[in-house]
Amino acid sequence: MPKRSRKNSLDLNQLATSIVGNATAEKLLQDAVEDGKNPAAVLLGRLGGLKGGKARALNLPAEKRSEIAKNAAYARWQKTKKDK
To answer: What sign for the dihedral angle of Cα 56, 59, 60, 65?
Structure first.
């Protein structure tokens, strides 16, 4: 198996900053401010997005979930056939 190298190596301080930033969504907020977006709206949107799929699945009947899954599988198979 070939050796894989990391894209960028971080020292311990950079790694710690990265971990804290990811845990607190600090990077997400910085990017939002740079793009001219409202940071509060970005966090609210992310919060809804994190629970959206689970909430949707709970509210759908089993028959509808099955139909959605079949359509998704069909779309994946069509994509792989076109790529070859």
So the answer is: positive
